[in-house]
Amino acid sequence: MHPERRIDSYELIMVQRGCLGMQEEGHPFVVNAGQTLLLWPHRQHGGVTPYPPDLAFYWVHFRLAAAGCRIPAKKFKVPQCATLKDPDRLIMLFRLFMDDQESGLLRPLTANLLLLLMLCEAARLSRPNLPDNTPAAVLASQANIFIHTHFHEPITTATIAGALHCNPDYLGRICREAFGHTLTTHIHERRLRHARRLLMDSSLNIKEIAQACGFMDVGYFRRIFKRHQGTLPLAYRRRFARMHVNTE
To answer: What is the extent of the structural domain holding 104?
Structure first.
């Protein structure tokens, strides 16, 4: 269980897996996978439930610049508890921070820049581009749910439209408006999110990961992965697959 304490720094927590129960000044928070919690300095906080066996989370302490310090950056708001738009981006930043810290390469400037990027990610909320409760928004949400539950299968825009009993062209248009990209890209992003987690946290080989993510052709998987990530899957694994465990 997270200890009861009052400290003089902020604490940013990001849950990768499981569910974390916390409280701050008596206000309870339930932080699920893909969500962040920002704890404030000089406030009493602690756990409200024991850590479940499947829980995995990252955390970092930080302080803000002293009053009067000139920082050439636009202000932004970090919610106290938020659902991330892309949790893997924040996970990569945490891993970069810890890799440099453990290897002795972390310098104050690098630490400050990485932390600023972490806070930027915590401020990027998962919000649809369509108004809530409209027929188009409901259909886009149903398509998103279908992709999240069937991404490991050989699905296409046509198969999703068939399952939702709608026209493929119409579905493609509203999903582009809702997600900011094509439905095919949305399928790829969901598959690659799972692939990144398997590369970091499993011992499966590249072919097994490709098949587990819905790519029947491992060569196509490598091309799509490099197009989106800028690197091949094996190189990504070598860079980010180090294990970090801290129970304090």
So the answer is: 10-66+73-123
